[in-house]
Amino acid sequence: MAPNTTTTYATVVKNGYSWPELCKFAPQAPSLEAFHITNGQVKLQKVECPKNGAGVKFQSKQVESKITSQVCLFENGAPGSEFNGHRDRLGAVSKELQKALTASFPDVEIWQIGSFAAGFDIPSSDLDFTIKVESLAGCKTPAAKLNIIKEKLAKEQEAFNVKRVVGGRVPVLVLQHRATQIDVDVTIDNDTPKLNTQFLIWYSQVDARVAPLVRAVKYWASETGVECSKKGRLNSFSICLLVIHFLQKGVSPAVLPNLQETFPEINGEIKISADPSKRRHLAEDLRRQGWSQQNTDSLGALYLGFFQYYRKFDFTTRWISIKRGTSLVKRYAKDRSPTQVHPRGYIVVEDPFLITPWNCAGTVRQGDIFQRIIEEFQKSYDLILNHKTIFFRNSVRREVIVKEGKERDRLDWGWINRYTGRYYPWENIFIDFTEAAIDWEKRRTIGRWEPWPEQMAWY
């Protein structure tokens, strides 16, 4: 034991001050070895990113991991993903509509089509259906059938706001779910989107990276304005095909094979069952034939590689064919009419199934809009490398929180109107913030705020 006068390591705090105290039973303090501090130069070894099939190079492995983790937010059911809530709402509204249609028309067959059915939905996605009703076979036109369905749904159900039937090459019945404000489009006797949706499902089943990559690119296209067919820009299906083409030809080894070449029977007229569980699973057939995935690139590398590929792609001289698994040179006769199967267009992405050539990107009909789309590929590539993030505007989390917050505020606004007995338009509360919102938009988009060219009236 140490002498009674040994000072302990502990201190007793009295009146806010620390004072050493003598302890009768304190242990002997251990002896410390002498150590010396010297100045020296530390050698830092830079960790190079492994090479990838997309041909992109990140500043460091940490940057690639960060970009990959951001793209992983778009995985279906990913922990912490802000998309899960919207997907759950879409699924609930889908079941509710199918129940309402079945109650009104017991002989109805329902196919869910579009982004949600293919697993490529984003927070702004709505629902799309095509149906077949045998009891309405006597009606001459699809528009007449949809008008009958419209009238019956308006009388027999209250969950949906039955708006109108929009005419056109393919008439559409427009609905809106009252509780969630989710829009629903219904067509009838429309076979083309059934096959297109199943086509996207088949490719997403081949590799688990396809769905989150498509969702991330679609989210980028929505945020930048590249996707907006009503304003003469790209539509959702053409963007999906651009991603598939990149995964076929823009990386080496390829992520996706050419399914139409491997399974030529799907190029003909095939029937898509209304029951998804009865449909063919091409990915399983592909693996039985001995195919295996050779590409191990991260989602971050594939995402950046997508922009690198299309910022260099020459759309003026080449057109994209998923059916052939490649891009081909545009060839014209002396009168500038195409001599190949591709139609005329600034961006040509061939429909993979239609016998008559159809350009899925035919909505882009103006040179200035086409040029802006090409600029967006280059801008996004540069911004990802410079700012090391895929979110240039609001993050996904912020978008969802703001949207849900506005929905809650709208409910509170309704209660205020009921309580006061007066009606204050919801839109009026935003009028005073218009100039501030525009200024904030310019500052927070990292200098990329530019108005899109207007679509000409004759289009």
Features:
five-stranded mixed beta sheet, MTPAP-like_central, alpha+beta, two-stranded antiparallel sheet, 12% strand, Beta Polymerase, domain 2, 2 domains, 459 residues, single chain, globular, Poly(a)-polymerase, middle domain, poly(A) RNA polymerase activity
The overall average pLDDT, rounded, is 84
Silhouette:
globular
Strand order of the largest sheet: 3-4-7-6-5
Question: How many DSSP E strands?
Answer: 9
State the domain count. 2
Give the topology string: H per helix, E per strand.
Answer: EEHHEHEHEEEHHHHHHEEHHH
The assigned structural class equals alpha+beta
Termini distance?
98 Å
Q: How much of the polypeptide forms β-strand, as a percent range?
A: 5-15%
**Whole-number radius of gyration?**
30 Å
Which fold name is given in CATH as the topology of the largest domain? Poly(a)-polymerase, middle domain
Pfam family, one: PAP_assoc
Domain Poly(A) RNA polymerase mitochondrial-like central palm: 92-205
Domain PAP-associated: 298-354
InterPro entries: MTPAP-like_central, NT_sf, PAP_assoc
Task: Summarize the SSE layout with pairings.
Blueprint: E1 7-14, E2 17-22, H1 61-71, H2 83-104, E3 108-113, H3 114-118, E4 127-133, H4 142-156, E5 160-166, E6 172-177, E7 183-188, H5 192-206, H6 210-224, H7 236-249, H8 259-262, H9 282-288, H10 299-312, E8 318-321, E9 326-329, H11 367-387, H12 396-420, H13 434-444
Parallel strand pairs: 4-7
Antiparallel strand pairs: 1-2, 3-4, 5-6, 6-7, 8-9
Domain Poly(A) RNA polymerase mitochondrial-like central palm: 92-205
Cofactor: Mn(2+); Mg(2+)
Domain PAP-associated: 298-354
